[in-house]
Write a structure and sequence with these properties.
With 168 residues, this protein is of the alpha+beta class. It has one domain: Aminopeptidase, CATH 3.40.630.30. Helices cover 33% and strands 35% of the residues. It has a 7-stranded mixed sheet, with helices on both faces. The radius of gyration is 15 Å and the shape is globular. This is Protein N-acetyltransferase, RimJ/RimL family. Keywords: Transferase.
Amino acid sequence: MITLQTFTIYDAPQLISKIKDQRMLLQFAGPAYHFPLTEEQLEKDLSDEKRTLFKIADQTQNIIGHAQIFLKEKTFLLGRILIWDENNRGKGYGKKVISELLKYGFAHFDKETAELNVYDWNIGAIECYRKAGFAFDPDVKSEAKIDQETWISLNMKIHKNTFELQKS
């Protein structure tokens, strides 16, 4: 079982220690953060009333990751999702985390749609989001540059009704 717990500034050192390089930070957080990740950057998110930050706990209450929800005008955005131990990837945690974030978001915010952004090369994450019911919005794309590369960020959305049907 996966649970979402409130992330506080006291949790920042653990998260910061997991972000090993600029590429990992960009994949995890998009271009808004700058490497190295700092408590000041996380404090900014914590003080943003449109953001809700979580630490992710497994069935033994071991903290295994991080996630955020960001309120937008018409939707809420799932983001900055990280299961930090690579040994925990591919075990279905991602889909459980997404489900918990959607449950929280649809229960706490008066929004009919949730969205997220994912880099086009991150096939594992894309499949996880598809299994959770997300579909691509072909009208929303962005780019991020790192080293000599351009990463294409794709947008995926899920309607509350689709999520409700998936749960039953």
